[in-house]
Amino acid sequence: MTSLVPQGPYSDQELQKLYPAKLKLQLVQILGELTDKGRETTLALGERFRHLYVHQLGFMPKIISDADMIYLRATPMPRALDSVQQSFVGNESKEMDYLNSLISKWMPEGSSRVAVDSHPRISGIMDTINSTLAHGPQTRLPSAFYNSKGRDIIDKIGIEEWFSGYKESQEYRKLGIGALVGDMVTRMVGSAEGSGDDGLLEVAGVDGQLGKGRGGQTSIKFAMSGCHDTTLAGVLSSLGVFDAEKWPPFTSSIAVELFKDTSVKEPSAKPAEPTARQGFLASFTKPSSVIMRKPVQDFSPEEKAKLQGYYVRLRYNDRPMTVPGCRLPGKHLEGDDSFCTLEAFKAIADKFTPRVWTEACVEHLGEPPYPSEPEPAGY
Fold this sequence. Notes:
35% of the residues lie in helices and 7% in strands. The chain has helices spanning 12-18, 39-56, 78-91, 95-103, 122-134, 148-168, 170-193, 229-238, 301-305, 342-350, 357-360, and strands at 254-260, 310-316, 319-321, 332-333, 336-341. The longest helix has 24 residues, at 170-193.
């Protein structure tokens, strides 16, 4: 008996025939066996499974953080156990093997292989590599750490580990970055409606009075927040604009700009009176009753009118980014879909802005970590 050599990836035509669009893949179960010579071919079989169920069908996540969704079983025969092991390892990709061939000899005792959760973690290795590149030759590691393919693998795995959840789960976005994004939207809505909720009430004026700057200012023009690389990528991933990006380099930034179309007539209603500030910390305790945290879907026509003629643009490291949901007709400035209407941008952010963060944190305890239906970011 000869070993079966798994064929290459399915073509798009084969894939459409095997997996009809009207049928949703629910469960996969694999049976197989291994001869002594079969480790290599069985490893290739696992790689084929990965390409099909992870990359082509999107049925499984790229990185499995725990075994809760995996079932492995074999007879007590060594070749059967090896069959499962090789197939599963192959399913987890050969990229980590390549990485270990480069740098595992420098790993400490007790954690001899590089892994997502090794000691140091793969993200920690990436931080060390990047910091030595930024600080000159005196800090350099052995040359193997700077292998271009190895660095690409580390970057890819790091991004999948840290940010793939933002792309796949509304709850992940809500708990991971939603309060911060909601706070940014609050400032923009406050600026549009002239309520003082653009942050002015956080700034002390004469003799500590709030709501009016010492120079007579009645609105905030510029707000800057210091944060982490994981914050930046979390925001971008949650808005659906971090595909095919590398880990944020040092000194990265996001500019969230609010524009007013001067040709649009101002609504006749008077600006809202300044209210008590209801920003990031407020989302931990109680919902806000003012327009800034109110979902767009609950707006009255008068409240929606306050947002008309306003546009939001994201610039990541000086590159304009287009939120996917803003590409739709009527959701952006005519001729440039990187300028999202404030109403559309807020509607997207509303879906993962927590009204009461402490309640959202325990809302789905005991349920599967991944949503049963796709929840793509940026819509």
